[in-house]
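Our preliminary data section would be incomplete without showing what the modeling component actually yields. Below, a chain of 117 amino acids is followed by its predicted structure, encoded as tokens that our downstream tools consume directly.
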Amino acid sequence: MPREDRNLLQGTLDILILKTLSWGPMHGYGIASWIEGQSKDALRVEEGSLYPALHRMERKGWIASEWQLTENKRRAKLYRLTRDGRRQLRADLSEWKRFAGAVASVLDGTNAPAWAR
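Predicted structure:
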């Protein structure tokens, strides 16, 4: 992933994780895999970004975790969204949609600024 894409992803990683966990509890690898799959591999979430974000979000109370056995009888830490996390997701989605709309308005703009005429 190009450096610029990593910077963009870093700014949106929390909302991507919160959205992923809105479907139900998931382990770290599953979170990264779902984001990559949904984005058709355009967004790659590396362990060095994912786990610090998960720990930070857990400290904020947005997610909770617990160790469980998988179908393969391996221990995995499952993360789930908390009530505060759902509240944060709603707020972030609202802000993200407002921001994305504003960027789209600029990028789709057909009226040149006065100084460019």
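DSSP finds four helices and three strands in the chain. Residues 83-107 form the longest helix (25 residues). Preliminary results of this kind motivate Aim 1 of the renewal.
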